[in-house]
Amino acid sequence: MSLRIINPDELGAPKGFSHGVLAPEGGRLLFVAGQNASRDEKGVEAEIRSDFVRQFAMALGRVLCVVREAGGGPEDIGRMTIFVTDMPAYHSGRARLGAAYRELMGRHFPAMSLVEVTKLVDEGAIVEIEATAVLSPRSSGGEEAG
To answer: Does the chain have fewer CB atoms within 10 Å around its N or its C terminus?
Structure first.
């Protein structure tokens, strides 16, 4: 599905996100639950608990796993919300974060929000990402909600 990026001149040029993303008529919405670096009920592995960039990359990779399972790709993501527990870690890791982002998403920048929170549900998680993707009507994959 081809999303149309909406960046009005009067809002200034965004960097690393888009001001708006318009979905084509007939697209199917995929809502991706918040994903983080936790692999199971034990939480995030000790060796990456303080590694902001690795946790970001793992969370984004998990979002993309859901999107791919539904028949889409990074270019189908229209919106992302990134929750972080440490805004200074985000700011200090921006160069590495940008590289990790481009490795997974390429040059596609959906509408995004970044929110600092006190704590995330899974033990040791410092980044969580949720997303909305728009898939073509013929995309398939996944399973029915029960």
So the answer is: C
Which pTM was predicted? 0.86
**21 belongs to a structural domain:** no
Between CA 90 and CA 83 the distance in angstroms is 10
Quick one: how many helices (H) and strands (E) in the chain?
Answer: 3, 6
pLDDT tens for residues 68-122? 999 999 999 999 999 999 999 999 999 999 999 999 999 999 999 999 999 998 8
Q: Residue 8 burial (CB < 10 Å; 0-12/13-18/19+)?
A: exposed
**How far apart, in whole angstroms, are the C-alpha atoms of residue 42 and residue 119?**
16
Q: How far is CA 28 from the centre of its chain?
A: 18
Question: Which DSSP category does 135 fall into?
Answer: E
Residue with tokens 């318009």: 22
